[in-house]
Amino acid sequence: MTEITLPAPVQALVESINNADTEAFVAAFTPEGFVSDWGTVKAGPEGVRGWAESDAIGAGAKMTVLSADTSGDTTRIRFGWSSRVFNGESDGIFVVDGDKLASFTIPPAH
User: Fold this and answer.
1) Spatial separation of the C-alpha atoms in residues 9 and 70, rounded to whole Å
2) Are 107 and 37 in contact (CB under 8 A)?
3) Is 56 a domain residue?
4) Which domain covers residue 87, as residue numbers?
5) Which one of 3, 41, 83, 106 is least enclosed by Cβ atoms within 10 Å?
6) Contact (CB, 8 A) for 97 and 27
7) CB 77 within 8 A of CB 65
8) How far is C-alpha 103 from the chain's CA centre?
9) Is the pLDDT of residue 109 over 90?
């Protein structure tokens, strides 16, 4: 199996979810960073923290990266997700700004 290499900020986010570390999750983002989950945007540290608590870490989530493709500052992944809120596979789009994430988008499935 080929090892999947992710940009450091994306790897930090995955690890923060799997380690149930809300502080590391929030710290992975720029101060203006946001999570967009099926069009619902949670911005800034408190918005990012709120999403982590309701939909990810607070829901006991585990994230498994299945594939990844990075072009410039954008990384697109396919990931498996297991939590009390959602179980299944999704796509994720990360935009990196320096050593932090500007955004993490989970687009609606069609």
Assistant:
1) 12
2) no
3) yes
4) 8-106
5) 3
6) no
7) yes
8) 8
9) no
